[in-house]
Amino acid sequence: MKLLNLNNNIHKKRLIGIILILISTPLFFFLNRFQKLGTIKEELFTAAARKGECFQGFCVGGDPDATLISRWINFSFEYLELVFLGMIFAFVIAGIVESFIFPKKENTRFFSPGIKGIIRGYIIAPTLNLCSACIVPIVNSLKNKGSSLESVIALAQGSSTLNFLSIIMIFTIFSSDLGWNRIIAGAISVFLFGPIISRLTYGLNQKNEIGNNVSPISINKNDSITQSLREGFKDFLEITKSNVIKLGPIMIVAGFAAGLIIQFLSAETINNYLGNNFKGVVIASTIGVLINVPLLFEIPLVVTLLLLGMGVAPASSLLFTAASGGPITFWGLGKVLPKRSIFYYASLIWILGIFTGTLSMIMSDNNMSLGIKLTDNEPIIRQSDFNNNSSNHLNKNDTNIISSTPDSKLIKPEFNPFEKLTYENFIGDTEVWNYRPGVVIFDFDRDGDMDFLITNGNEFSNFLYQNNGNNNFTDISQSAGLDDKNFNASGAVACDINNDGYQDLYIGGKGFNGDGLDFRSLQDKDEFIGIEDRLYINLQNGKFKDITKSAFGNNLNYRSASSVICSDIDNDGYLDIYVTNLIDEDFFMSSLFWPSHPGHYNLLYKNNGNETFEEIAKQSGVQGPEVIMLNPEGKGIYFSDQNGKEYMGFNPLVKDKNSNIVGDPTGPSHAAIFFDYDDDGDQDLWVASDGDQLHIFRNDSSENKILFKHVSEELGLNIIGNWMGFTVSDFNNDLIEDIFVTNAGPHQRIEKSGINSPAIKPGGDCKYHELYELGTCLHLFLVNQKTSNIFEDKTEEINIVPSPYLPAEATIKKIKENAKIPKGLGAYDFGYGVTAFDFNNDTIKDIYWLGSEVGRGEGPGGNIYPSAGRMLMGLPNLEYEDVTVRARVLDIQGINYNKYFSNLKTNEIPDEKYNLKYKVHTKYHENGKGLAHGDLNGDGYLDLIGTNSSGPVWSGTLDDAPGPFFVWINGGGNNNWIDIKLTGRQSVDGTGSNADGIGAKVYIETKDASNNKSIQMQEVRAGSSYLSMNSINLEFGLGDIEMIDKITVIWPSGITQTLQNINSNQKINIIESKN
Question: Under 8 Å CB-to-CB from 484, ≥6 apart: which residues?
Fold first, then answer.
């Protein structure tokens, strides 16, 4: 019988039905599928960035304050919203099929039993591109019209697992083993499920399958097209209404059932049950048949779980089973198929999922890939020249240092706490939309008080807050010319690059989140696009002028800047600029769990003295060496390019969305600091590289050539870690500065804390390095040994008196069985920005840091690095006390410290329930980034400003929220102090040192009441720690000393200058002498 015969009215209807399908299908693709494809891409790049733990409204771990029921309901409604248009399309197609295409049962032999029906079902299925839930109305309609069980199963499986879009995306996103496993499993399900289920249900005799009785539609052979169309639409409305009534409630109820199941997909589940083993495969396959996902969304879901630690084998299972069917599919098909057929169908999906995962486990047993396909370029393992000194610094537990027990005398108020300013102190915003906001404290208008800059993200203005006195500030960014909203800013520094006595601003830019593009796809020689760095000249009248293009020409930085620092590296009187570059945020997180972990080359701009710069990083030796990437045995992991050239830890064939190379063959750098560690009078350079060795470049420049030598190995400090921020100070008062470097902290050593990355996967995550003793996650406290030109690692030897209110988690919680117990400073939390300063002016340096990663405590991922800042008050003999809560500088919003302390009994140590009540708990931490200190109110006591990332937060639903910056004003005290500002002669007569004396060393000599002599020293720096810059004024705490016997300044020009008998408690400006 012909499929179409226009002399037959049934065939006229069929022609109308085909036309309607040809019209509705492209319309559906335009309205839904193309947008959904874009959403999928967005989800994938988001997963690789900072929201990787979230998937279409569902976040692993969920809202910590929400009940299971509220999470379940919110997610279920979100899911139903996503599939709503697909369901409508499915009901429309089902109605067209039953009313136009096959209005009589005898005309459904197109989907007859046997291989012919299966093939026809398979051919049509991929063109529908419907998920396993949305295909149900169409399958039911065809079954009602007499189609065979074999053909409708082929149609259901083909549409959900072998549709065109999924095939394209699977081979684009996943490694070949995962891709082919999914395709093979889909083909098996299409061609074998139907015959197996049919024979299990009806036996070997296919004639036992009896279709439903369908009353034929009466059509006169002489009816016109109009009449056929009228009757068809009448039938269409009736059939569609009937399908909606029968299937709609089932689909909604099943959607809620699947939503309930997926709520149990927690971080703990991933850690404990979804490893690369048979147990993980079985559990993943089970989860897959218990949930429904919209078409294609199994792809970002699996990507998300892979990035969070799921094994490749369970990923292979879930990639197939989640797409194949779930409660909606099974309950819906139960309306037209025997119940035992549904049982067989679900069982076969589950069994094939297990088989697929087991096969993947065998194939990937020795494979280092994550399962996500970055390229087909497989790593090369061979011996490297890298001499890893990390093991010499790992867990020096033989010292058996144990933190002191808190004593009641140590919790009495020995200092006045800080006070956090409120929005009432600011005319302007106090929150930023920026993942990496920096802060700079500087006196931009030279009126004697400190102003500050906060960097903001694209579409939002940076903030320049002018100090009005009395702890009040006004944002003048617009009038100052710093309000460009086409600028995705990051770290910043204030340097007087033209020696006119006013600090200018260099502000780093970074790539756009979620666009999937690295800088090579975005850089523009003619127009600003928002990711390039900017240089603003201070016009001395409250305004800044952008001179970026003229200053840098074709050497403008587009490489996702992180921190920026300045110094006069060749002592020519002009400040040079060093820019550390990270990598575009879209590619940062995924590289932590894959052996390609590149960053971008750092840049060194040599000041030409005429407001132009020459980029000299490569020839000077400081653009960054290759990233160190080792396998568990300590051998190097390399990738080759198309010409056979090999790179350690950098895959040159990884491309962005526009097919341009991602990254450079070097590590991602978070921060840098100029630090004359060898005390030879020139500026050496330290660089904190993420997932890489600590970089130390000794300044070996001569009069005619600027040259740095990489000496990390020579100093025994080529230690691998997630290095993030620096602070330099003379911690032990031996007149040579020491250094503290922040790291990810010991969080992953704590039992059931955070999310583990895959144990066998080399990458940039320090947890991998710790597992195989290749590196460390602990901070690094290095004491400079002046006489021997080496550093002594004191990290785990330093005694810290813990806080009785909020002790570090690693000091009170159980450490994992196979992990070493962190001690001393090594037991303390994650850190980005860090600063050393004498906050109570007792002459002993204190340390404060803040920082977290992935998310704030009340958002997804906030449990991974629960850090709310730490203030360590310096004690004699290089010991510290944790006074964070007493100092009232927790990086948390909404704490009422007065109520917290007043409701505690004398010497009472609060429990966790009490702390949660008052939000004195890391559960509420912000996502700290930048940090700087300076005396904002001129009282001689240093204040703090900390910035926090914007990002998702739970507020009933998951919503993006800006990140607050906190201004903590020091409560002051009775100790004495001196505030010293330097003025180099370049700003006076064009000779001598740079205008702000950057690089100068200042020594103050004093005697106490017993005539005991002491000397303190500090060095002037522009750019400090992470993304940020402290005030360039040097403040020395003097305790009860009222008179300074002598101040000695060693200027970068080589001139030594002394002042004698200086009264304390004043601000002085020392102008460089002529000789």
Answer: 461, 462, 528, 534, 546
